[in-house]
Request: fold
Amino acid sequence: MDRTKNEEFEELRPLLFSIAYRILGSVTEAEDAVQETWLRYTASPTPPASTKSFLSAVVTRISIDVLRSARVRREEYVGPWFPEPLLTDPYQDPERAAELADSLSMAALLLLERLSPLERAVFVLRDVFGFGFGEVAAAVGRSEAACRQLAVRARRHMDAGRPRFEARRTEREELAGRFLDAFRDGDVDGLRELLAADVQMVGDGGGKAPQFGSRIIGTENVVRVLDWSVSRFARIGGVMEPHQVNGQPGAIVRDRDGKVLSTWALDILDGRIQTIRAVNNPDKLGHVGVVADAWAAFHEATAPDRPAD
Reply:
């Protein structure tokens, strides 16, 4: 194996994964796309003029093909579909850290779902990662003029529903910490004051994990569910571990053995939590850690109290 080729690929791996994940919304599929890119790179007989452009083009084409087939599966998905939660974006650019984090959010990735695979790829390459239209055109196999039109359409869709978040990341983190503390302590009033009037709580169980409902809307409805959950959560020794989820404040939900039950991602704006997105589908949590048996935990949490002897 050419040591230089291997080193160049490993240096670009974080970028390639980040491109693939934003196109696919799946950690496992993005990792597979990067691995397939490596195989094609090693099979290439001549070195490319630009390794970055070549590899980015290859991983983009692979991701577009995977996304086209994945869309059929998502149309048949049980309940709301969310991306697989990503705890850490491996691609680091300190000058654009906040922008990259916002493009990684659950809200932004769900907006990207509205785009065609080509529009999505063009938007990710051009607007998120700043590739020139020449590189974008080579990656998606379209003319530069066509890519400019794809970019215009993609931006129009994205701008129409672009998520807004609290400007200061420290304020988001502080409010999320207060929310998780209030949940842990069963502080109903504390929870209520942190939620927006039209707050939504949405869960992705894929038909494979317990759900409170596909979508719960309004402060009192969400507080009622959270309040009910607190005591049940304590029964299974549950832990809410604060963690960034898709670039936003959130938590990993674990059982008493440290196994993963869920991830929560919080959208925060104007000093209030606007949306709580929970990924409960065990098929989407394997890369986070050892996955708990969610149904067993649910049955334990909701079992009738035993009468005293």
